[in-house]
Amino acid sequence: MTDDFDIGARLNALRTAHRLSQRELAARAGVPHAQISIIEKNKSSPSIATLRKILGGLDVSMSDFFGDDQRKPHGPFFGVDDLKDLTSRVTARAIDQGKGRLTLRQIGDSRAYNLQILHEIYEPGADTGEAMLQHFSTEGGYVVEGELELTVGEEVRVLKAGESYLFDSRLPHRFRNASDGITIVISACTPPYL
């Protein structure tokens, strides 16, 4: 997938293929109908949580949304170019007015193994958004570089390189890079979320 992935056009194509109006999709997803229009016109880049809700209304996973028809390696080994970009231009909402990009790249076919392994890069200010994530999974990760602020339920902790986490993803959670440097995380989630 290229960096010029058109989220609006892709969402419009999927909605049209499902023969849903913007209002019908919004009702299914539990979002304001104007939000669908704004995203389809690329006037706003949705947070991960919002895009996930909308795709839930289409019964489409994030992986399928950003998927391409190119040959997908099945492993057991994967090169740098084999990782699947799940975010493209989905800019996570940051505290400082939208600054900071979050990049999520998946190793292999998460559905085939019922395990999603991600290489995550948080630029300074990157944030999964004020709307907490919550899904039926278990997830864990290891901070390779930098600092990651993790909120799970009412608990908040800044994890530094060498520290890790593991929790029930049904608890509301949020990831954020509040530092001035890049943060790199390797994470796993089962069953796959994105």
Automatic annotation (TrEMBL):
<dbReference type="Pfam" id="PF07883">
    <property type="entry name" value="Cupin_2"/>
</dbReference>
<dbReference type="GO" id="GO:0003677">
    <property type="term" value="F:DNA binding"/>
</dbReference>
<dbReference type="GO" id="GO:0005829">
    <property type="term" value="C:cytosol"/>
</dbReference>
<dbReference type="InterPro" id="IPR011051">
    <property type="entry name" value="RmlC_Cupin_sf"/>
</dbReference>
<dbReference type="GO" id="GO:0003700">
    <property type="term" value="F:DNA-binding transcription factor activity"/>
</dbReference>
<dbReference type="InterPro" id="IPR010982">
    <property type="entry name" value="Lambda_DNA-bd_dom_sf"/>
</dbReference>
<dbReference type="InterPro" id="IPR050807">
    <property type="entry name" value="TransReg_Diox_bact_type"/>
</dbReference>
<feature type="domain" description="HTH cro/C1-type">
    <location>
        <begin position="11"/>
        <end position="65"/>
    </location>
</feature>
<dbReference type="InterPro" id="IPR001387">
    <property type="entry name" value="Cro/C1-type_HTH"/>
</dbReference>
<keyword id="KW-0238">DNA-binding</keyword>
<protein>
    <submittedName>
        <fullName>XRE family transcriptional regulator</fullName>
    </submittedName>
</protein>
<dbReference type="InterPro" id="IPR014710">
    <property type="entry name" value="RmlC-like_jellyroll"/>
</dbReference>
<dbReference type="Pfam" id="PF01381">
    <property type="entry name" value="HTH_3"/>
</dbReference>
<dbReference type="InterPro" id="IPR013096">
    <property type="entry name" value="Cupin_2"/>
</dbReference>
